[in-house]
C-alpha cells in the first residue's frame, strides 16, 4: 500500500506524473482492427445513440465544423467591441476609454463604422476555429495514444496543454492573413473600408509578407491563450461536476450539461484574456504600422502600454470563450457526437495504487 499523501498527489496533481514509480503489471490487450489503442479514460463512452465513432474521420470533420461556427460567429458578433479595443491599443491619445472609443467612432464614421472589419473577421476566425477545435481533438487523441491510458490520466493537464498548443500553431497560420487585413481596416481610417479594397492594396505595397508579418506575435498571443482556454476549461468542467453540480454528469440533462459548459468557458475566458493581452497589443500596433518589428513595438509600448484595453478584452474574451464552448458543445449534441464525461482514474491505476482490492 502506498502512503496516503502520494495517493492524494496522484489524484490531485494537475501538471505532471506523481513522484514515484508504479509497479508494472500485465494489462489486457485491447485491439481495434488488429491495432492496440490507448485513450483517455474519458473516451470510454457507450456507443449507444451516437452518430459516429470517437476519433473517426466524421468525428474530426464535425468537430471542425463546430469550430467554424463557434469562432466565426462569436468573433463577428463582437466586432464593434474589438474595433474599439484595437483603437485603444494603437491610439490611446485619441481613444481614452471604451465609452469614449465608441462615441468617437460613431461621431466620425456613424453607426456603420462600428462594423468595420467584419468580413475578414468572419473568414479569418472561421478558419482558425476549424483548425483550433478540429486539430485539438486530433492531437488530444494522438498524444493520449502515445502516453497510454494511465499516463493520460495522470498527465491530463499537460496533455491538454500540448494538444491545444499544437492545434493553435496551425490555426494561427490560417488566421494571420485576415487578422492583418482586419487590423489595417479598423485602425487606419481612410486606408480601406472593405476586404476587397484592403487586400490588393496591402499586397501592392508590401507583398505577401504584409499578411504574415504578424504570425509570430500571433503565436505569442494565441498559443498561451489557447493553452489556457482548453486546459482551464477541461479542468474547470471536471471540478464543477465534482464539487458544484449536485449530481453526476450522467444524470444531468443535455441542457444542464450545456450550462456547465458555458460557466466553465467564461471562467477560462477571463484567464485567457489576461495571459494573452500583452501580445495582443503588440499584434494590433504591428499590423497598423509598416516596417516595425515585434521587439520595437514592445519596447515602445513599455510595461504599462501593453495592458491598455485589458478591461475591454476581458469582457470580450470572457463572453467569447463561454459562447464558443457553448456553441461547440451544442454542435456535438445536435450531431450526436460522442461527448466523453470528465476523466476518471483507470481501474488498472487504482489497483497499482492499492485503491481497490
UniProtKB/TrEMBL annotation:
Coarse class of the primary localization is mitochondrion
Any one GO BP annotation for this protein: mitochondrial phosphate ion transmembrane transport
This protein's UniProt keywords: Membrane, Mitochondrion, Mitochondrion inner membrane, Repeat, Transit peptide, Transmembrane, Transmembrane helix, Transport
A GO molecular function term, named singly, is: phosphate transmembrane transporter activity
* A Pfam family annotated for this UniProt entry: Mito_carr
What does the record say about its membrane topology? Answer: Multi-pass membrane protein
Spell out the GO cellular component terms annotated for this protein, sorted alphabetically and separated by semicolons: mitochondrial inner membrane
Q: Which domain of life is it from?
A: Eukaryota
PROSITE patterns associated with the record: SOLCAR
Catalytic activity line of the entry = phosphate(in) + H(+)(in) = phosphate(out) + H(+)(out)
Q: Where are the Solcar repeats?
A: 58-142, 155-239, 256-334
Q: Where does this one sit in the cell?
A: Mitochondrion inner membrane
UniProt lists the family membership as follows: Belongs to the mitochondrial carrier (TC 2.A.29) family.
> What is the annotated quaternary arrangement, including any partners?
Interacts with PPIF; the interaction is impaired by CsA.
Name the job this protein performs. Answer: Inorganic ion transporter that transports phosphate or copper ions across the mitochondrial inner membrane into the matrix compartment. Mediates proton-coupled symport of phosphate ions necessary for mitochondrial oxidative phosphorylation of ADP to ATP. Transports copper ions probably in the form of anionic copper(I) complexes to maintain mitochondrial matrix copper pool and to supply copper for cytochrome C oxidase complex assembly. May also play a role in regulation of the mitochondrial permeability transition pore (mPTP).
Q: What protein is this chain from?
A: Solute carrier family 25 member 3
